[in-house]
Amino acid sequence: MATSELDKYSKPSVAVDIVVFTIMGNELKVLLIKRGQPPFAGQWSLPGGFIQIDEQLEGAALRELNEETGVRDVYLEQLYTFGNLNRDPRGRVISVSYFVLVDSTKIKPFVTGKENISEVQWVSIEKLPSLAFDHDKIVKYALRRLRYKLEYTAVGLELLPDNFTLTDLQRLYEIILSQKIDKRNFRKKILSMGILEKTKVFKKGAHRPAMLYKFKKAKPISTFRGFKFEG
Amino acid sequence: MATSELDKYSKPSVAVDIVVFTIMGNELKVLLIKRGQPPFAGQWSLPGGFIQIDEQLEGAALRELNEETGVRDVYLEQLYTFGNLNRDPRGRVISVSYFVLVDSTKIKPFVTGKENISEVQWVSIEKLPSLAFDHDKIVKYALRRLRYKLEYTAVGLELLPDNFTLTDLQRLYEIILSQKIDKRNFRKKILSMGILEKTKVFKKGAHRPAMLYKFKKAKPISTFRGFKFEG
DNA sequence: ACAAAAGTGTTCCTAATACACCCATGA
DNA sequence: TCATGGGTGTATTAGGAACACTTTTGT
């Protein structure tokens, strides 16, 4: 591989940063890690890290996420590439950001092997601390994208188990959009999309059992209005 | 600047590639350059190049565009970051792609000082040759984004002079979306957005003069639903 | 006077909204 | 039997789509 031309000038570093969302209880949460080393030692930040020379961008995002937090098998989508000159005090670092949605029932306890992480935690979007680097901006953008996509895609299903009730789904929308939704209108709209299928199972609880639904097709792995990249 | 940690591993190169759209005659055109050097010597490709270590991403895109084609003062928006391992035969190159809209009346004749470019040309989107690298994919994505944004933003105004008739604007929509639009519905919708303002000037021609309009506010420089980054 | 583009309203249909009661179950 | 969440329909409104003729100018 002839890299001579490419090596003429000093290069920036390339990192990935990942905004992982999940719904826990009645809150939308983001996965944060407490940095164990400078810069920003002791401060909260997004999971992420430098990509390897022989590694796909998405692969790097998934690897970092798994190494740092044990989270696997998730919906992943590229967000935006942040490249301000001074976003990292160590030098020029360009960060390709991703957003990830994960069903909280599939999350296992954190087992991180990384020495430079002192803590991993799910933090409510309402109670975010100030984050390292420009990660505040990245989270803000990710949240915007999540809310926006919820309106015209079925992406929200990535946050639920395979079988769920319509009330579960509505609660998810209400939490993410932080607003109440009319039950009848919500059901009408969701069902008219034709993406849900009744199972023959009911969820039993303290009260009237609720029909469980499942998503019809293979879960969507797309990035922009159904357009699939780099696959 | 402590770059020791960053330099432990070999780094990918980072490039920008730019899809520049304009309307000429009755066609949507993209700016292409014919490569003068390997790889892909003699083949058409998008304008672009490697970023410098002390240069903003957007700045690099604008610089490359200006150096290669003389195009300046344009609407610029980040598209997507392509990073497949083998997208460049020279080695690992990650490309941050941008899309640019430029009013064709503001384009000056090309004066490129770069030795590695043998030709610069505006090519109709209908007659694109097969492009170098993964640039076909980038153009496809850019076109998709342009069509999509046209539906819910005023981004199309970037392709027109400051003053324009409603017929000019409608023609622009028809060319980009490649479909006829009803004149009355189009005017109703555009005017109801409240973003246009009548000038007191008429465009004289062979027939009945048409009212010239202009855009009300500062032209939008945004990347995603009005959200401004890195600014 | 005529050719050519400018300009203008109404009807229809679809989709979003607002809104309230009965049902099935476990305790 | 009652407390709790599950489940259902209709009337109104707003926005998008279909559709044709008159006006103004230059030649």
Which helices and strands occur, and which strands form pairs?
The structure is a homodimer of 231-residue chains.
Chain A: E1 13-24, E2 27-35, E3 44-45, E4 48-50, H1 57-69, E5 75-82, E6 93-101, E7 117-124, H2 135-152, E8 163-164, H3 166-177, H4 183-192, E9 196-203, E10 210-215
Parallel strand pairs in A: 1-6
Antiparallel strand pairs in A: 1-2, 1-4, 2-3, 2-7, 5-6, 8-10, 9-10
The first copy, chain A, binds a DNA duplex (27 and 27 nucleotides) through residues 165-167, 182-185, 187-189, 192, 204-211.
The CATH architecture of the largest domain in chain A: Alpha-Beta Complex
User: Which two chains touch over the largest interface?
Assistant: A-B, 43 and 44 residues
Secondary-structure-derived class of chain A: alpha+beta
Strand content of chain A: 25-35%
CATH fold naming of the largest domain in chain A: Nucleoside Triphosphate Pyrophosphohydrolase
Oligomer: homodimer
- Characterize the largest beta sheet of chain A: strand count, sense, and whether it forms a barrel: 7 strands, mixed
Helical element count of chain A? 4
At the fourth CATH level, what is the homologous superfamily of the largest domain in chain A? Answer: Nucleoside Triphosphate Pyrophosphohydrolase
Outline the low-pLDDT stretches of chain A.
219-231
Radius of gyration of chain A (Å)? 20 Å
Arithmetic mean pLDDT of chain A: 90
